[in-house]
Design brief:
The protein is an all-alpha fold. Helices cover 64% and strands 1% of the residues.
Length: 354
Amino acid sequence: METPKYKSGNQLSSKSVLIWRIIQSVLWLIGAVILFFLIFYPLIGINLFWNILIPITPALLVVATGIWRNICPLATISLFPKRIINRKRRKLSISAQGKLNLIGILALYLIVPLRHALFNTSGLSTAILLISVSTFAVITGTIFEWKSAWCSGLCPIHPVEKLYGTKVLLSVPNAHCHQCMNCVVPCPDSTPGIHPSSAKKTIYHKIGGFLIIGGFPGLVWGWFHVPDHNSLTSFTQLSEIYKLPLAGSLATMVLYWLLSQVFDKKQETKLVGIFAATAVSCYYWYRLPVLFGFGVFKNDGMLLDLSLMIPAWTMSITVVITSIFFFWWIIFRKQEKKSWLIRPQYAPEVKRQL
């Protein structure tokens, strides 16, 4: 297997490792606290998770994906088994990697609309979701080599990382991998300018790339046009929460396919950037007003009601500015391609194989 040559070897000092471990532990504890509130004080837990943590994440993925990759609580618990028992684990084939990526994208498309019927209004449902996802993260981290199966495979957030993280502000040292095991090729952490269509090794990679690039903007748009329900009671209700998000996703997939016939291969990254900027801009275009009481569905996803304190036009200006920022950042801002993280030195057994 041919491995791309990347600059590597930026090792963290013991002090830096300790700082990152403290940050990771704090974030993990915050996650545990949120889980506690979701179960026992659901209104607080829902606000902490869906109305504070989640709205911050897309912007962080755009600007500094590597920082998120270093501190993500699910990554921390996925890699915990390896830190306890440092033994060689199974290496995924390229085909298996593509399948996991595709499953992660399908899980994202399944979970996001379900927020309207279950997770946005039920703390217990959200807690069960987080426990289930954490269990998958631990199991995959126990069986497969390092970050290959969860952080770079099955995780539903990983496709969004690759969509949004094409022009990060900086590359930071890798706080999880003290040496590179070459567990994923190409490594999403260490490949400059990686995006969902970078790896077209199998049909699974190609389908996954098409679904997340072409379909995600429409999924985001459709999602914000569906109201929350207190429970899931019928098939009709289930069809209602999926209808607009999937219809929007299909529409933008068709648009993406048409534009991909016009854009040549050299312009592929720009086309991906257009759809990425559209998706994240659409998210904040609707999410920011909703957070502060200016949403179409008044109480859905509201963190703080400012509708009687500030005029509506201030929110309009805010979302226009955020959209301009994201389009500039992702499409028009010129910079040398950077990886999310700096690849550490290869492990001796890997180095001998390169």
